[in-house]
Amino acid sequence: MEYGKRYRKTRKKEFLEQMEEIIPWGEWVAGIEPFYYPDRKRGRKPRGIEKMLRMYLLQCLFNLSDKGVEDAIYDSYAMRKFMGINFLDDKVPDATILLHFRHILEENHAGEAMFDAINNVLEVNGLIMHGGTIIDATIINAYNSTKKAAKARDPEMHQTKKVMNGVVV
């Protein structure tokens, strides 16, 4: 109920909503399914592949430790929503479960494939930057008069204007 009256979306929530839309979840789950062991007799009952994949993805995207991503999911409404966790019905997979999931991916060399797939999805959707240029955009004082011998202004010369709340200052 507390989150029902929130009107502003955080950047994290917007980013996770984009991830929700662009990631081919079914394809990625099918790629991991042969390695995941849902019929183990000992230990904790394994969580769903997609839920663990979402947790692993949060860990990679936000550069978190196993325990850090568990805590972040408890703290962040956006992350809980991305995971599909409702505290009334479900609980957050703990750090040990994520560790085991990550080990399964590493043992079967699926981690590299996941990393490549994540980068590919981000690149295709224009959400990753490979390089850039830093430009010095320092504004310097200039004389008011720009008239030349022809007594006309240079058509390529522009002046900067400061705009605040739609009003030129």
Shape: elongated
Tally of individual helices: 7
| Helix share, percent | 40-55%
User: What structural class do you assign from the helix and strand content?
Assistant: mainly alpha
Low-pLDDT stretches? none
Largest sheet: 2 strands, antiparallel
> What is the β-strand count?
2
Percent of residues in beta strands? under 5%
Would you list the SSEs in sequence order as H and E? Answer: HHHHHHHEE
What is this structure, in a nutshell?
The chain is mainly α and 169 residues long. 46% of the residues lie in helices and 2% in strands. It has a domain at 7-124.
Describe this structure in words.
- It is a single chain.
- The chain has 169 residues and is mainly alpha-helical.
- It has a domain at 7-124.
- It is 46% helix and 2% strand.
- The chain contains seven helices and two strands.
- The protein has helices spanning 11-22, 25-32, 49-61, 66-75, 77-83, 95-107, 110-124, and strands at residues 163-164, 167-168.
- The longest helix is centred in the C-terminal third of the chain and has 15 residues, at 110-124.
- The radius of gyration is 25 Å and the shape is elongated.
- The chain starts with 10 loop residues before the first helix and ends with a strand.
